[in-house]
Amino acid sequence: MTYYIKDAEFRRMDEHQDRPCAVIQVHPGAVGDPNLFVYVARAQTGNGYEIIRMIRSDADLEIDWYDNSLHQAFAELPEDQFGDRGWPEPEAQRKEFLQNLLANEQIATRLEQLLT
Fold it and tell me: What contacts 46, CB < 8 A, 6 or more positions away?
């Protein structure tokens, strides 16, 4: 199973582990998949971009408007947990996800402007 992107929006610039990055909110195309906040930075090699952090958002305005200890609205999603086991390999699924994200013209243009 692949994470299908319904929509993606640039949210803000941030810094993670001393690296400037763009925070992009991704809305899923499949029912039951969580919203994601994806931190994208210039690749270490200088060519292209890479995902350096992902936050899963299960926030619900009805129950998360206060400090709710019974529900974790935001959780870091480790790279090795993004993508299903099996075929294609999880690493290939993550690469495909990044390519699909960068196929959004508004996102790609914003990254070029901000991460030079």
Answer: none
Q: Indicate the pLDDT class of residue 80, thresholds 50, 70 and 90.
A: low
Using CA atoms in the order 56, 59, 65, 67, what is the torsion angle rounded to 10 degrees?
-50
**Run of H or E including 26:** strand 19-28
pTM (2 d.p.):
0.79
- 71 pLDDT band, cuts 50/70/90, is very low
DSSP output for 31-66? TTPPEEEEEEEE-TTSSSEEEEEEEEE---TTTSSS
Structure tokens at 110: 């914003």
Quick one: which of 98, 84, 76, 114 has its CA closest to 8?
98
Which amino acid belongs to residue 28? P
